Automatic annotation (TrEMBL):
<keyword id="KW-0227">DNA damage</keyword>
<keyword id="KW-0479">Metal-binding</keyword>
<dbReference type="InterPro" id="IPR015797">
    <property type="entry name" value="NUDIX_hydrolase-like_dom_sf"/>
</dbReference>
<dbReference type="GO" id="GO:0006298">
    <property type="term" value="P:mismatch repair"/>
</dbReference>
<keyword id="KW-0408">Iron</keyword>
<dbReference type="GO" id="GO:0046872">
    <property type="term" value="F:metal ion binding"/>
</dbReference>
<dbReference type="InterPro" id="IPR023170">
    <property type="entry name" value="HhH_base_excis_C"/>
</dbReference>
<dbReference type="GO" id="GO:0035485">
    <property type="term" value="F:adenine/guanine mispair binding"/>
</dbReference>
<dbReference type="InterPro" id="IPR011257">
    <property type="entry name" value="DNA_glycosylase"/>
</dbReference>
<dbReference type="GO" id="GO:0051539">
    <property type="term" value="F:4 iron, 4 sulfur cluster binding"/>
</dbReference>
<dbReference type="InterPro" id="IPR003265">
    <property type="entry name" value="HhH-GPD_domain"/>
</dbReference>
<dbReference type="Pfam" id="PF14815">
    <property type="entry name" value="NUDIX_4"/>
</dbReference>
<keyword id="KW-0004">4Fe-4S</keyword>
<dbReference type="GO" id="GO:0034039">
    <property type="term" value="F:8-oxo-7,8-dihydroguanine DNA N-glycosylase activity"/>
</dbReference>
<feature type="domain" description="HhH-GPD">
    <location>
        <begin position="7"/>
        <end position="150"/>
    </location>
</feature>
<dbReference type="GO" id="GO:0006284">
    <property type="term" value="P:base-excision repair"/>
</dbReference>
<dbReference type="InterPro" id="IPR044298">
    <property type="entry name" value="MIG/MutY"/>
</dbReference>
Amino acid sequence: MWVAEILLQQTQVARGLEYYDRFLSAFPTVEALAAAPEADVLKAWEGCGYYARARNLRRAAGVVAARGFPQDYAGWLALPGVGSYTAAAVASLAYGEARAVNDGNVRRVLARLYAQTAPTDAWVQARADELLDPARPGDWNEAVMDLGATVCIPKAPRCPACPLRASCAAFASGTPTAFPAPKVRAAAREVRAVAVIVGDAEQAVLERREGTLLGGLSGLPAEELAAGESPQTGLARLCARLGAEPGAHLGTVTHAMTHRHVTLDVYAARSAAARTPVAEAALSRLDHKALALLASWQGGLFGTP
DNA sequence: AAACCGGGGAC
DNA sequence: GTCCCAGGTTT
């Protein structure tokens, strides 16, 4: 249940299911997860996004392997990667503790029930706490989330099938989708970058991504371009850092993330640096797109770089 | 409170 | 293209 709740953070259920069996097969026990190299855990998580979830889950497994499983909400909340939602979900569903969850489904259901356009987290939590059935907290939490996932859905809610229809203020208003109002989101930042492939699609020079963006994953050596900087200048800077010889331009790939639109120019390069097996590394979608450019060249469409 | 963190489904 | 997803952490 713990693994499932982490996988389902900001991830649709259908997608979480794709990873759930694979992850539990790779790491069947908390001890196995705690003992696994971080790179192996990230490989199992590859493509699922929000990779800090995988790193925190492994770190938390170390705590659980040493001290045993937490037995209540506060104990779960203290684990890395476990916030108020996950702690309430595990405490209520697995331990029967009277804790109301507050996720996107609960927020939408309660915003509509009370016709709130901009409910705060504290407001949603307060309403959920009031309504929770303390005798069956797990069932109540699952029921509200299921209602939000199947009936009280964002775009075209199935109000005629809703058991709360008679007491729903949003239904009474005639415009249930007005509640809650869409959240204001910052525009995605446009990013231009250059990357180099030293090697081939099977063996290439890879670097470990540091920081919060894709942190812990492997990737092609890359440099972000400054405003107005040309790809050629970025390539020269990148090759200077690597001690590499720049080669042919292999192509350009684009990739959309929630907060970034990336345009990446990919070049061949030569160096004596050690290559690693690409298939064993956990790569982002962007790096997979960049490596896929090589297939066009090796396929003979344009000759070899 | 707001910014940041992936990738994809549904429209 | 927009909005959202069984959120958490950091600033």
